[in-house]
Every structure is written in C-alpha cells, then in structure tokens.
Design goal:
- The protein starts with a helix and ends with a helix.
- It is flat.
- The longest helix is centred in the C-terminal third of the chain and has 35 residues.
- The chain has a domain of 72 residues.
- It is mainly alpha-helical.
C-alpha cells in the first residue's frame, strides 16, 4: 500500500514537472537566405557581420587566451595545493607540489606579460 502511494506521488510529480519544461510557441521570422537571417538577427542585437579590424581581433584573441590561462593556472594551483596537503610529509611529493604551484604562478606572470605586450603593440602600431 505504501509503495503504491509513493509511486502515485512520484508519477504525479513527474507529470506536473513536465509542464515546466514545455516549449513556448514563437512566431519565427521568415527571411530569404541564411545570410539574410543572420544579418537580421545581428542587426537586432546591435552588431554587424562586417569583418573586424586587426586590433579588435587581436584584443579578443588575447582576452580569450588570458582567460583560459587564468583558469588553467587556478586549477593547477588547486591541484598543487591538494598534492601538498596529501603528501603526508614525503619530501619528494611536497617538492613536486611546490613546483606545480610555482609553475602555475609563473604561467600567470607570463600570460600577464604577454597580454601587456599585445596591448602595447595594438595601441602603438595597429
């Protein structure tokens, strides 16, 4: 009896929860070609499909790479810290963990220096 009640309640909850994920009908715009649809959507968002300048491309690529390097460095610092904590006094594991953290910090410094160099070159020469 108790199992039937639980199954009924579970079925009811699952049935009702599907209403939250039901699709909403929309009125899609019709346009001639894919390029026209893309241009129409971009113009509605305030951007365009014209090619960007070299400086904006370099800045965008540099920002993306800086973000990725920062994320990888944070992950490596966390891994190094975890390895240091779990080394249980073993000197070789402690030194390996310290090196991991050191190399992650060096990576952050190098990526910031690269960002500074690219920013300088873009503002001065491009």
């Amino acid at each position: 009896m108790k199992k039937n009640i639980i199954m009924t309640v579970l079925a009811l909850v699952l049935s009702v929860s599907t209403l939250f994920f039901a699709g909403t009908p929309v009125q899609a715009a019709s346009c001639g070609s894919a390029k026209q649809c893309i241009d129409q959507g971009l113009s509605a968002s305030g951007t365009s499909s014209t090619p960007n300048s070299l400086s904006s491309v370099l800045t965008t690529v540099t920002n993306i790479l800086l973000f990725l390097m920062g994320a990888v460095s944070v992950i490596m610092i966390i891994i190094g810290g975890f390895r240091y904590v779990t080394s249980q006094g073993d000197q070789t594991q402690m030194q390996s963990a310290k090196n991991t953290i050191l190399y992650a910090v060096i990576g952050v410094v190098v990526s910031i220096a690269a960002y500074a160099i690219v920013s300088f070159v873009v503002t001065q020469f491009v």
